[in-house]
User: What shape does this take?
Amino acid sequence: MEVIKTAIDGVLILEPRIFKDARGYFFESFSSREFEEKVCKTTFVQDNESFSGYGVVRGLHFQKPPFTQSKIVRVIKGSVLDVAVDIRKGSPTFGQHVAVELTGENHRQLFIPRGFAHGFAVLSDEVLFQYKCDNFYAPQSEGGIAWNDPDLNIDWRIPKDKIILSEKDKMHPTLKEHKTVFKYN
Assistant: This one.
């Protein structure tokens, strides 16, 4: 696995070694030993999967302390623009984001540490998306930032009239309006 740094410290692109031949391909999508050596020590406890169609924007989501989560996300089929927003007060990159295209063809994964809001926009007709989380889902701890927060200035690469949101995602406050504080260390 190659680890590629992004513009925000701690948000990393994970690129597996892919072995291709006439039969197809093989790659190791996760190794706790290699992840600990190259990224950080954590234990992933929950895997999630979602299926969505073109124009769906999910996010920007996070879990509030003490149920914060680090995630590794990847696309099995299709294409997304995956976004991680730094919401750690005091961070030199507070309010900034990283956007990476993840596809079923490039097999890239994105590691999103605790203290970040996460979301993605579906760029293909369909997408099969997987999350690996290091803390269990806690519905009482859900949080979110408005996907269209003007201060974040995220280009979701989908025309606004084609964006499909859940009712919950339509109601999130902007980052400035949010009361949740993640500490930067």
In short: The chain has a mean pLDDT of 95.
